[in-house]
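B., you asked whether I could sanity-check this one before it goes into the benchmark set. Here's the sequence:
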Amino acid sequence: MQVRTMGRQKILIFIICITLCTILPNVSVEAAKEAKEPEVLVIYTTMDGKMNEEQRYLDLLIGHFTSNIRFISSDDVEKSDLSSATHLFYFGQYSTQLPVKFNTLFDEYEGTIVAIGYNSEKIGNQFSFIDPKHEVTIDQISMKSSDKLLDITKMYIVEIKVYEGSEILINGRMKEGDVHYPVMVKGNGNYYYAFDTVDSSQATLFAEALHDVFKIEHEEISPGYIRLEDVHPLVNPKPLQEIASMLKEKDIPYMVAVIPIYTNQITGKRSTFADSPELLKVLKQIQKDGGSIVLHGYTHQFRASETGEGFEFWDVENNSPIYFPENQEYTLKEEKDFSSKEDYLNYINNLKAYEREYIETKINQGIDELAKYGLYPLAFEAPHYTMSQYGYEILSEYFSTYVGQVQLSDKDWEIMDTSPYITSPTFLHGMKLLPETMGYIKPGVEQAVQKMMDNTGRIRLSRDGILAAFYHPYLGAEGFKELLDELDKLPNVSWIDLKEMDVWVKGKNVSIHTVNGEIIKDFNRLKIVSSSMEAPLYYLSQFVRFAAWIMVVIGGAAVCMFIVFTFRLIMRNKQIEG
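And here's what the prediction gave me:
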């Protein structure tokens, strides 16, 4: 009887082992799938079949959740492109007939689909829960599940009929009317967004809804940063020091956007931090106390513009990337100006080669110039936020982190925007964007601080929207105190410290990265310092000043010893005489 029981136990154990061996691998696979970063495919329909600023702004929004994003035109997409995608976005910017393959393109796709704008009825039957009608105008949108509401400029959306079983996430209406129109709808596990454009003026609620799309829970805490802007060698160190003391007292980390070289636009005279030892002393103390240095260009100018006012990585006069020296006039050619496509491509490649050399030279000069004085940049901010798409690609080879707003088109520098939250879009080629969202205090503008604070309401519509502002120290410490007092009232803000982030900078001669709040740097000091005469002369003057003080101390000590010796000698003589 006991033998039979033992035999049954062995059989039972064997069955359990087989079952576990069968189940556990599947559990591991499912866990791996859940842990895997979302893989997104964006199919877009545009007039010319090319990406534009609308897709790049969508890139900003999706880049908050994943860096694994691909963009393909609806003319070029194939069924095989969908095979690995966990999420699929279709962005129809205008109403048109789609290729016949769209009738069955999504039949076997099992992931989540988000349709934006037009043509949702032409991409299979996944969007049978809505029926597009006409266009209507709205000037207000709101989340259906909360009191989050956003006033916008009057815009068109696609009017849709919503069928039973679907869920309205965002509603829209005209403030003066009572009719509500569905703006974002969920049905059959898919989503539809009725705007045919995506930008910061109206996409904050869409950005919040994407948390539901990706099923990713982010804390309802707003990261934030304060950036002190345009600090160059001729800046008055006193207000900068006063502002830094305020931030240190409140234990708020911050950033300082530094321009290493100031060039007089009339005389051409260059000023470096060797010419401003007091300012340099303040900056080094800032770096030690809690501030992080951001490289804000090399000279922040192009042609005869003033440092801090001009552009550096964009030719504003020709509204193009910098393809030629600043003293050379030119007219950009088009493909029709060439006898063959090959000649045109060679022309474009030559332009891009010049742009690369120009940008790389400026970046390396900027990093070297700061490093030679003991300042180590942890991020980059392009002057006036202007830089070409190829420029971002070049920059990504040198910096891991970008600060500010971003230019979204090579056609016009004014086509720029900001993200509501931290993101890593594909067009930044791996760089993390810490966007600026609140603006700055403009001289002469009434209630400038209040206008900045008004922007926080829109930003906070996204649960982890970033509250980021900048201030020019030349405006004085009093103006900054007013801004800081208001920022201090904001609840649930986590101030960003670049030193606590995983950032790196890889210049030609200087390598910088951070570890547990410490700046780790590696460079050839002799090579960096000897790259120009200003730094050696500065360090020589510092040494001479130090040596002079030593001589003064030694001389003073000798005088004191002489006086003491003389006094003792006099006293001794008096004792002998007595």
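One thing to flag: The longest helix spans residues 534-577. Otherwise nothing jumped out at me.
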